[in-house]
Amino acid sequence: MTTQTERALLILRERILKGAYRGGEKLLTVNLAEALEISRTPVRAALSQLAEEGLLDRTAGGSFEVRAFSYADVRDTLILRGTLEGLATRLAATRGAVPEALEEAERIVAELDDCFDTVGDGVDNEGYSRLNLAFHATLPRMADSAVLARELERMMRLPFASPSAFLPMKRSKTWVNRTFFVNQHQHRAILQAIRERDSARAETLAREHARTAMENLEQIWAAAEGRDRSELALITGDYGEPD
Description:
- Mean pLDDT is 83; it is low at 238-243.
- It is built from 9 helices and 7 strands.
- It folds into 2 domains: 4-68, Winged helix-like DNA-binding domain superfamily/Winged helix DNA-binding domain (Arc Repressor Mutant, subunit A, Orthogonal Bundle); 70-229, Four Helix Bundle (Hemerythrin (Met), subunit A), CATH 1.20.120.
- The chain is mainly α.
- InterPro entries: GntR_C, TF_FadR/GntR_C, Tscrpt_reg_HTH_GntR, WH-like_DNA-bd_sf, WH_DNA-bd_sf.
């Protein structure tokens, strides 16, 4: 059964990441408790957990405010994800992938194909996002590395680190289809490199795959120029090209 703290945590985390609160906005326990119809103690505990996850900052007075992230913060987070996943695929190729994890990854890639509607030229966004996350979770397991699995799980709690963070759910059909098809091609190439024990290529492909998220971020930012940027509400500062 979900506790009141867990419920508050899930609701507030989702609202923050979806841009319901702006960077720098103060979150008051009393107001949130009333809005969520949850007592103050579990709300306070949820806010403390979100501060540990890096989504909130504690103020000098003991309250909380939504943390704003620079473009460089987001870029470095995506680079870190690519580095860790690249290492996972390199180790999987070098050591030989754990058969069960490799089979699961191949099954997921096959299921991802079913998310594409070849007749209607559409994509099952929710299904793709769920399976995409599942695919990325297999990478450290293929490498049989508990250390990498733990560090990747920890890193995924960082804002915008998720493999599905910048999937183009609300963009033009052409852009959505292109992005998803490119991602799926990269998934297959990564698995092929692992099967062939080509560690250098596996790592390079995983890093390139992570960079796709940065390209999506750039597209989302540019497309939202002068309009609603709720998807990027936590990102502040001037937009600039990655180094």
